[in-house]
Amino acid sequence: MKENTGKSKYVILGMLARMPLTGYTIKKWIENEYSHFWQESYGQIYPSLKKLVAEGLAVSSDNTETGNRRGQILYSITDAGRKELSDWLREEPEIEKLRYEILLKVSFGGNTEPEVLLGHLDDFIKRNEKLVKDMNGYMEHFDALKVQGTDCTYSQLTALCGVYIYSAMRDWAVLAKEIISEKEVVRNSE
Fold first, then answer.
1. What domain of life does the native source organism fall in (predicted)?
2. 126 shares its domain with 79
């Protein structure tokens, strides 16, 4: 297990501020709600949970008596954890670092056949269309929860960001395909 020294503790504290959770539930929630902008592995979550408990920012309890299967450990945030989360929320966010391998491949595209890049771009378009659909699904889910009395405004805002990002990436890829195709037509006509 690797120890995480990054932002894992704040992700977990933010989630625990909503409700007590198990490590498994935290992982699944991150995969479903945050995967378009944040990833955490079990190897980051469980050591972070243990560290949060050791630092007094969270408490743990074996929740078998409340029907929790397999005796999973339920974690809850403490007042000290809420203060830690609040302090971190006031800090200026770090500058985001994007990594898109497709952009590297397009940048070096003069070293391969246009059909290769066009295929990569087709796959990228499909992937981003699916992600836009997923984000819109989350938006609908949050609307349904709002009708039931659960305020999901902030979660909905992150899903909305995903809609904009993935729509923009899809639109870029469509335009990139057009430019590459036009370049190939001009080159073949010479």
1. Bacteria
2. no
Burial tier of 159 (Cβ tally within 10 Å: 0-12, 13-18, 19+):
buried
Our measurement of the distance from residue 58's CA atom to the centroid of its chain's CA atoms, rounded to an integer in Å, reads 23
Q: How many Å apart are CA 143 and CA 154, to the nearest integer?
A: 12
Per-residue pLDDT at 4 exceeds 60: no
pLDDT at 78: 97
pLDDT per position as a tens digit, 123-148: 999 999 999 999 999 999 889 988 99
Question: Do residues 33 and 53 both lie within one domain?
Answer: yes
86 and 111 part of one domain: no
What is the rounded distance in angstroms from the CA atom of residue 144 to the CA atom of residue 151? 10
Name the 3-class secondary structure at 56: coil
Confirm whether 126 is domain-assigned.
Answer: yes
Task: Identify the domain containing residue 41 by its residue range.
Answer: 8-90
> Which run of H or of E encompasses 24?
helix 23-29
